[in-house]
Design a protein that fits this description.
The termini are far apart. The chain has two domains: about 1-30, no CATH class; about 40-140, Alpha-Beta Plaits (2-Layer Sandwich), CATH 3.30.70.120. The protein is α+β, with helices and mostly antiparallel strands and about 140 residues long. The chain contains five helices and four strands; from the N terminus they run H-H-E-H-E-E-H-E-H. Strands 2-3-1-4 form a four-stranded antiparallel beta sheet. Strand 2 (about 65-80) and strand 3 (about 85-95) form a beta hairpin. The chain is elongated, with a radius of gyration of 21 Å.
């Protein structure tokens, strides 16, 4: 399709009642959820030499997480056993639900290579309803 053909097709649907109805329906669904959303975000780090993608895939395959975002390498500075340490790590953002959190925590302990891994659970103030439904559906067992 050429640019000209695309523009013509876009112009022909601008006034279409069907398009306006679909847009209004989508906008109606994009309403924020209640503060009691079941969606939570779990933060953890893995060493830069650890296969974070395999770790993430395991959580997804086992329906413990709907999505795991692996951020680019970071430098962490922390106190460990009386010394100040510095390490290259990868930050992971794990999206799941409060229902799946206990199973995630249990599996997490068997997968994570650290002696004391970061496992910080953050409850969002608000989550868009369609996203909330997707997360919940993705981790249903």
């Amino acid at each position: 399709m050429t640019v000209r053909e695309y523009r013509r097709s876009a112009q022909s649907t601008r006034g279409s009642p069907k398009v306006h109805v679909e847009i209004r329906e989508y906008q109606r669904q994009i309403v924020t959820s209640t503060p009691d959303t079941p969606v939570v975000l779990v933060l953890t780090t893995l060493g830069s030499d650890t296969d974070a993608t395999s770790f993430a895939r395991t959580l997804i395959v086992e329906k413990l997480a709907a999505c795991v975002s692996i951020l680019p390498q970071i430098t962490s500075v922390y106190r460990w056993k009386g010394s100040i340490e510095e390490a290259r790590e990868q930050q992971l953002l794990i999206k799941t639900t409060t229902v799946r959190l206990p199973a995630l925590a249990e599996r997490f302990r068997t997968l994570h290579p650290y002696e004391l891994p970061e496992f910080v659970v953050i409850g969002p103030a608000d989550v868009e309803q369609l996203y909330e439904k997707w997360v919940a559906g993705s981790v249903e067992s």
